[in-house]
């Protein structure tokens, strides 16, 4: 009889085969098939090694993605508290759940068909300026376009002068795109999100805590840094 300790062992076979089962060239039962598979597996080496010279393929490759250095930290007066960040994540989660429910019912609603060139900067700029980030509009975008759109929005932040912040409409579009991203994220999407968070941190670093509108100016920046780091799990970019 198997003891409790033995039953919890990871080395106990998942499938037991009767010792009387014979090995056949053409299995006719489930146990005969398992026995044949096990015998064939025993003939294989434990570790498979590549016997080809891959140096010529890897010459220009790197195991690591080089990221820009971290931007200097914002003054404590402009950093969000952990409690505030938790509230933003909770609210964002509710928004995403609502969007998920609406997406499941989108056949019942009128959806705008959005036709846009994926990598055409002028087309994206015109789209963001002339359209509003409503669900009917966002649902009209192909999911494959979201990375392009987020990247265009991130690049547009390069035009923000020191001391200024993200405009309301740009902020709405960024939030809408973040809310509509599907999980799990692709590696390219993660890279774009990290660039966005770093850009927001850089913009925030130029805002002085003593400025009259400093708190309002850093609000959207703090939101995006928070969501990317806390909700999308890029924890190393989070405000501590």
Overview of this protein structure:
Keywords: Cytoplasm, mRNA processing, mRNA splicing. It holds the Pfam family SIP1. InterPro entries: GEMIN2, Gemin2/Brr1. It is found in: Cytoplasm. Belongs to the gemin-2 family. By secondary structure, this protein is mainly α. Helices cover 50% and strands 0% of the residues. Helix 4 packs across helix 10, helix 7 runs parallel beside helix 9 (187-205) and helix 9 runs antiparallel to helix 10. The model is unreliable at 1-10 (pLDDT under 50). The chain is built from 10 helices and no strands. It folds into 2 domains: 4-42, no CATH class; 76-237, Methane Monooxygenase Hydroxylase, Chain G, domain 1 (Up-down Bundle).
Which structural traits does this protein have?
single chain, 240 residues, mainly alpha, Methane Monooxygenase Hydroxylase, Chain G, domain 1, 2 domains, 50% helix, 0% strand
Which helices and strands occur, and which strands form pairs?
Blueprint: H1 4-7, H2 30-42, H3 55-58, H4 82-104, H5 121-130, H6 135-138, H7 145-156, H8 168-180, H9 187-205, H10 214-231
């Amino acid at each position: 009889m198997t003891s409790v300790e033995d039953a919890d062992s990871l080395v106990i076979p998942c499938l037991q085969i009767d010792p009387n089962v014979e090995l056949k060239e053409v299995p006719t039962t489930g146990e005969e098939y398992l026995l044949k598979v096990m015998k064939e597996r025993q003939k294989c080496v434990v570790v498979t090694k590549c016997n080809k010279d891959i140096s010529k393929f890897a010459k220009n490759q790197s195991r690591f993605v080089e990221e820009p250095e971290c931007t200097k930290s914002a003054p404590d007066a402009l950093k969000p508290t952990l409690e505030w960040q938790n509230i933003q994540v909770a609210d964002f989660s509710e928004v995403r759940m609502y969007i998920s429910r609406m997406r499941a019912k989108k056949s019942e609603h009128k959806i705008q068909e959005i036709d846009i060139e994926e990598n055409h900067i002028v087309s994206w700029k015109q789209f963001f300026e002339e359209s509003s980030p409503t669900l009917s509009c966002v649902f009209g975008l192909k999911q494959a376009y979201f990375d392009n759109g987020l990247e265009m929005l991130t690049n547009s932040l390069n035009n923000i002068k020191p001391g200024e912040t993200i405009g309301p409409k740009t902020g709405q579009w960024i939030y809408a795109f973040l809310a509509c991203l599907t999980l799990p994220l692709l590696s390219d999407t993660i890279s774009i999100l990290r660039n966005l968070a770093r850009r927001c941190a850089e913009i925030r670093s130029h805002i002085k805590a003593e400025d009259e509108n400093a708190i309002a100016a850093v609000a959207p920046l703090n939101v995006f840094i928070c969501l990317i780091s806390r909700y999308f799990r890029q924890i190393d970019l989070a405000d501590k």
